[in-house]
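Note to self: keep these together.
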Amino acid sequence: MSVSNAAELPVRPGEDPWTESELAEVRSGLEAEIAGLRDGIAAAESQLAERLTDAVEGAGDDPTDTGAKAYQREHQLALNYNSRELLAQSERAIQRMDAGTYGVCESCGKAIGKARLQAFPRATLCVQCKQREERR
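Structure:
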């Protein structure tokens, strides 16, 4: 979907239709976030690869140091996983814009809400469905 079809995106009752500039602003924010996440993931993977291939790192460490380094590696892997998940969500939001399904709740099919998407552009569920999901 091009930005010129912004007015066709669903909105909740009482909300103004999307304008081209509003959708372009959300899209540019997502694209900037995608670029930043890709750079961050690449840097983190490079650092992790360097640590894993360094044969002498940790030689002679006592068990406490070894445990601390293992914890740091696990922490870095968890952060990297989270960044990958955010990247996938952001890319999916762009794909939904292109497909014309941006703003449609994946659970109930109703409009997510323009204000919610402007605040959290990766949202795929309306507030009611998200609350229901979190209660489970």
